[in-house]
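hey m, so remember when u said the tokens were messed up on ur end? i reran from scratch. heres the input so u can diff it against urs
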Amino acid sequence: MSVPIDGFGLPNIYLSLLRHICSNGAIGYAKAFRSSLALGTGSDNVRFSIVRALDGFGNDEGFAALRQRFEAAANSWASVHEAQSFFKLLVKLHHRNQVRVNSTMIDQPMVDDQSIHTLTVGTRPNEIGSPVITAFHKMTGDVSQLYGLANVDALSAKRQRTLPVRCSVYDLLNFASEVATHYSMDSGARSAQAWLGSLISSEYDIEGSRDSYSDFQDFFMHRKLDGKTALELQQLAS
């Protein structure tokens, strides 16, 4: 549920999917998966209206559509345009300090702001820098090397929509939900989920193009828990 804090607008309920193996949550922040709550006048009992809407909530068509879009994502290669759009969002989240890069959580050394900036400008999978960016390019492949380009933006948007990367749209959605759920601040998580919702609510660039399948990857960034408790990890991080 999304509730406006400024008093303007109506609360909205968005459909979401939760993974069984962890707390990853993919939220469909789009009109196609949104239900608005009518609260009545200012004198009405707002709490009663919200409780009634939640208790009796049902959106079978919306859930079916959301499930179908994820099934279609598994059958579609991600395009360069789709991968680049999320990469640019990752860069913004880093520069806004909305992504938590913690050496106790990810299998890469923690880096400072300058090395993050260096990585996000020249991105290659084997460079040292943000583990989130590194994991992203490991998933998609190095687009510059795949197509022999010094700068991916030299391709037109139309051409980028026809060229695939080395992962499916489902992998992109899975990566986005993992970043939003596990490695982002609240504001960064909302941005990542909004990107996810806009992608699944429209037709994919190369929809239905995938005809061979491999095992789905559980996680793209592995946590180094080593049997430590959450308190111990927090102490290490500080």
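this time it looks ok to me. Residues 80-95 form the longest helix (16 residues). if urs says something different then somethings off w ur setup not the seq
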